[in-house]
Amino acid sequence: MITITPNLTTKNVSLNSSVKNNNQTIKMSENISFAGGIKPQKSVKSIISTLGDTFNFFINKIVKSEKGLSEKEVASLRGQLDMTEVELQRLQERRLQLGRLLDYDKLRKDGYSGAEVSRFAQEDDFAIMNAQRYIDHDLELRERMFGYPANMTKDSAMTRYLRIRETELPLMNNCGDPYDAGNYLMDSKGYEQALLNKLFKHFGLDVEKGAKPWGYITTGGSESNKWGIHNGLRKFPNGRVYYSQSAHYSVGKSVKIGFDNSKNDITLIKHSEISLQPNSEKIDTDILLSQIRQNWATNQEPAILLLTSGTTKTGAVDDVEFISRTLKAENIPHYIHLDAALFGGVARNQINAPKTPNIEELGIDSISVSLHKYFGNHDVKSVVITRETPNAPKVDYIGQYDSTTAGSRTFNPFSSLQRVSETLDRTMPEEYGRNVALFESMLKEFNIKYSRAENSNIFVIDEPSAKISQKYQLSDFEDNGEKKSHIIIFPYHKPEKMLELVSDLRRDIKTRN
Description:
single chain; seven-stranded mixed sheet; alpha/beta; 14% strand
C-alpha cells in the first residue's frame, strides 16, 4: 500500500490536497492510500480548475461573506442547476441510444441474426421501462417509510457526483485485512481506512494519543455483531456469551448453528439470554451480573457481553458503563461488544439526542455501527471497530491476514466516505431532534398514546390496522402480550408526511373504536 502524500510533484499523488482561498486553507479530503503506487490521471487541482471562473467567483464570495449569497444569487444558481439537470437528462438519453446502436451493430457483425438483434433491442427497451418504473415506485415508497431505520436524506451535490463516479469503477474487492495487501490490488482499502479513521475519532479512539484501533466494513450489523462475539471468544475460548431478550435477532444466530427437526437449538457456544428491566428494553443488570458472578465462581467462565445502544424496537440503551465498571471492580474477565447500529451514527454535536458511545470511557472492547441507518448510505453496510488488531492466520491464496468474517468485501468508497464525513462534520446541532420533537407534538395534539425511550427517535404505539401498517411500512411486534408498532423519525421525513401519518392513525383509532 502506498500512502498518498501532499506533494503533487512526486510519484505519490495527493488526495489530501488543499485549496487556498482568500488566505484560508480548505482541506479537501482524508488521506487515501492507493495500492501498487498507481498515479491517478488527474490531480485534485486539475479537476477543480475545470469548474471555471463562475465557481471560483461564488466560492470566494461565500467564504468572505458572513451570511453567504443573496436570495437573488441563490435563485439564479438554482435556476441554472434546474436547466443543467434537464440538459443532462437529454445527454444521458442520447448517450444511451448511440451506445445501444453501436452495441447492436457489433452483435450483428459477430454473427447474430437480424431477428435476434431485434429481440435484444426489445428486451433492452423493456429493461429501461422496468428500471424507470422501479425507481418511481421506490421514490414514492421512500416518502412514507416510517417503520425501519434508514435516514434517506437527499444526497449533497458532492455525494451525488461521487456516486456517479463510482459507476466507472471496475470490480473492487477488499478481501482480507483492510490494513494488509497481497498481489490483488483492485481494492478500495485506502478509502476503507479513511472511513475507519473518521469513526475511530467519533468513538473516542485517539490515534494521536496512542490508541491503536482496528476495524473493517462488513456486510451489515449481523456480521459486525457476529465478529464482535467471535472476537470475544478468541480472547476467552471458555467464555459464555450474554445478551438480552431485546438484542437484535441476529445475535441468536451468532451463538447457534440453527434448529433440529423439532426446532430445538443446535449450539456450540455457551450463551445466556437475559431478561429485561420492568417496562423497558434495557437488559436487567441485576440478573445479568448475578449470572456472570455465579458462572465465574462455579465454572471459571469469563463473560462475553453483547450490549445494545439503541434497541431495535424502542431505542433503549443498556447500562453499559455501570456493567463494565462493576465487572472491572470485581476482577471478572470480560469482553464487551456494543451494538450501536442506529445511534452510533448520530453526530456528537446533536442536542436532545442519544449520547455517542465513547469506547475508552465505557470500557468496551468493540463496537458496531451501520452505514445505511443514520448515516443513510445507499447500500447496506456496517462497520465493526475494536481497540486492537485481532490475531488472524495468514492465507497464502490471498497473501494476507484473514481477520474478517466475510471473504470478499466491497462498498461504495467515494460516496460512503463523503456521506459519513458530512454527517459527522457538517450537521447542525438540531438536525436529529427537530423532526422528533415535531412528531411528538403531533401525537400529543391528536391524542395518540405512545411511549419513547430517552432521546430516542422511535415511538411505540398500539398496533394500527394492517392497512395503516402496510401504507407506512410500520414494524409490528408483540410486547408483553400486547400488539405494538413503532415509528422511527429521521431528518429526511417531510412534516406534511408526518402529519398525514398521524391523521391516518387518528382516523384508524376512531374507526376501530
